[in-house]
Design a protein that fits this description.
By secondary structure, the protein is an alpha+beta fold. The chain folds into 2 domains: 19-174 and 233-322, BirA Bifunctional Protein, domain 2 (2-Layer Sandwich); 333-422, Anticodon-binding domain (Rossmann fold, 3-Layer(aba) Sandwich). 38% of the residues lie in helices and 20% in strands. It is built from 15 helices and 16 strands. It has helices at 19-38, 52-59, 64-69, 88-97, 142-159, 175-191, 198-206, 220-224, 235-250, 295-298, 313-322, 340-356, 371-380, 391-396, 418-422; strands spanning 42-43, 49-51, 72-74, 80-83, 107-116, 128-137, 166-171, 256-257, 269-276, 285-291, 306-312, 333-337, 362-364, 385-389, 398-403, 411-414.
Length: 425
Amino acid sequence: MVEAMEKITAVKGMPDILPEQITMWQHLESVIRQLMRVYAVSEIRTPLLERTQLFKRSIGEVTDIVEKEMFTFADQNSDSLTLRPEGTASCVRACIEHSLFRNQQQHKLWYMGPMYRYERPQKGRYRQFYQLGVEAYNFPGPDIDAEQIALCARLWQKLGISSMLSLQINSLGNNQSRSLYKQKLIEYFTAHIEQLDEDSKRRLTSNPLRILDSKNPELQQLINQAPVLIDYIDPESKQHFLALQQQLTLLDIKFTVNTRLVRGLDYYNRTVYEWVTDKLGAQAAVCAGGRYDNLVTTLNGPETVAVGFALGLERVLLLLEIVQQKIENSIDGYLICTGERAIEQRLKIAEQLRNLLPNFSLSTCLGAGSFAGLFKKADKSGAKVALIIGDDELANGTIGVKFLRIEKPQLTISMEEVTTVLGDI
């Protein structure tokens, strides 16, 4: 007796993106690419796999990402490799490796692609997820922070989702003021250690700022009474933060100062911000970023100030679904050939039409079928027009054009008229 073979499915938390979904993805990606050109940001592409040490040194060994969420394995040479859990560290590594920071060169870079974290899959949070990342190097002032936030605001506007997003900002200060604040937090939470849950107790000495991110409702009152970071930041960082607020006000970008806002990665300093929504349940943060002026030197690069952000494409797409911005997955034309000679020639005819109409998306009916059945296929394809060629049309050099989505009389045109009639479909 032959045993039934086990059905092979996708890896948990790594969903397929199907043809009916891809049009919205392509629309979002197209808007992003256009916007990057408008802001003169150059694209960079880095590998999916990096040496594990890159993320341990950049993100921080006591962060949740490194401790719990990375996909790490040894290759055939016993080298420890990791699927990238975020893009900033890879971008910095590439810039150092290829000397892009030499002589304090300024760069604005962007990348887009899959990231990997071992998380509990849920709507808007996957183990393979897609991010847009934007980074800027050797721009020390708050104006670049404001420009990146303005870029985000313009993206929301172009996508029609501005009303669903709000901006929260904060400052972490420099390393010294942040260390002082960490110590104050440790002292405060240690005095109330009996109220902490196990996760917060674990973070108390390793990364106390992360306690402020706790979603445990029983801890919220304790967190609300904790020392406030803004009271401990250094004067220079405070001035940077005030200047950022002035720039955002000048740009008419509304914001809220959230003194509890921290970032989960160790490399942040000074400006941190999040674009948040109340439309996606627990997945409130759609986009997050800030400054990381010390990361480049941490990875043995030259002194280089930096700022960047990342946004989750899946979460943006969920917001687009809410506002019902559906982009139809349609094609322009569907070629129907009938008659022995026309069917023999249909691939050649299709190629001739593609030569005449290089931007016209054309599907060709392959295989046999009744004339009525072929029209049903044309209509089901979503095509705007059906192009009909039988043996008589082939002999006469003509083509029938039936409009499928608008009320318009059927036409018979010559091949020479194809460009004029179909060019703007």
